[in-house]
Amino acid sequence: MSTEVAVGSQAVERALPAAAGAAERLRFFLQWAVLAPSRHNTQPWIFEIAGDEVRVYADTSRTLPVADPDGRQLLMSCGAVLVNLRLAAAHFGHATSLELVPGHRRDGLLARVRLEERSPSTPEVEELFRAIPRRRTNRLPLDGREPPEGLVTTLLREARREGVTLRPVESHQRRVVADLIAEGDDVAWSSSRFRAELAGWSRTNRSPRRDGLPGYALGMGDVAALVHPLAVRLQNPARAEAERDRRRALGTRALLVLSTPRDGKAEWIQAGEALQRILLRATAAGLFASYFAQPVETPALRRRLADAVGDPGAPQVMFRLGYGLEPRSTPRRPIPDLLRRMEQAPPRPAALAVRPAAEPTWTATPSEPIVLPAARGAEPPRAEAQA
Ligand SMILES: Cc1cc2nc3c(=O)[nH]c(=O)nc-3n(C[C@H](O)[C@H](O)[C@H](O)COP(=O)(O)O)c2cc1C
User: Fold this and answer.
1) pLDDT tens for residues 220-241?
2) Alpha carbons 164 and 176: distance in angstroms, whole number
């Protein structure tokens, strides 16, 4: 069995040997898993493979103590990884089951995905699988064309199936929401700690590093990308960022808020899974997404955002969808750097909560917020940190 698809920026064409065992197969599928989005492209995940099981861990050395002190977005990224991994398995003819590990574990273990029986792929899987390497965040200007008729409705339905809510920001809510975005930008960019954290994840266009944000992802040429980390540390671009984002929020056709009924570890992973499925569907329709994280990352604004869009739950991410020029893909770390262990045959621990492949509903797990070790004690002062 082989794939013709270039895998994101790795652009490899790799064949899965017909005789590959379960562990080799899972390792192969990780190539698609890691194409998931993550805040600042931190790629905060680690894997272990034991026979027919892959364990997904949060990489607590890759937290964002300022932008994401609770690890909420980190877990969303890991949720997106789970979707990609299972889609890759499904494309190559394997059902999977997912076991989410409840509560907070010191070792960061979040989930186990197991290969189950062989089963043929479906047109839906194929559509989403093909979109994995084509999905990318597009921070460049998007044009003013409407998304295709019915797409937003399809996305709302997809969100419901995943147990989350997706709300389009209606025209009468636009100005208030655009103001909240601008206010969030102001809080974030005025924080020297936020800017220092971002600078630490900024990369030049030719950086050999396989994580973080290359300047080209922000629309920068080589020289601008070279000076960007220093400029971000020294200058406060809050006003310009706020005005640009306000304009974008007002001008965009599809501005969407994804929220969950409650706000805990399980919901964050769930939100990430739903987000990824929504992004893949939008990608399949030729659309790009970009995000407005600041009002969700700032606690006081998060509540006001929920009120502004009439949401009784907890907003997890806000993004816009539109058409534009395809940006270059961002780098990903090589699999050997992320795969901590690989064994052929594991002992099988008892399942805590198993979600079979064909069952889209969420198996309830305790929803207390987790505190990731690296973030513990790093609760920053409000005005500075919640950017
Ligand atoms: C939960 C979440 C929030 C994000 N928020 C922002 C954001 O506020 N601004 C932004 O430019 N990108 C944001 N991103 C996008 C990441 O920077 C992007 O996924 C990463 O750089 C990898 O690039 P790719 O999405 O093109 O693969 C967010 C991603 C996730 C998963």
Assistant:
1) 999 999 999 999 999 999 999 9
2) 23
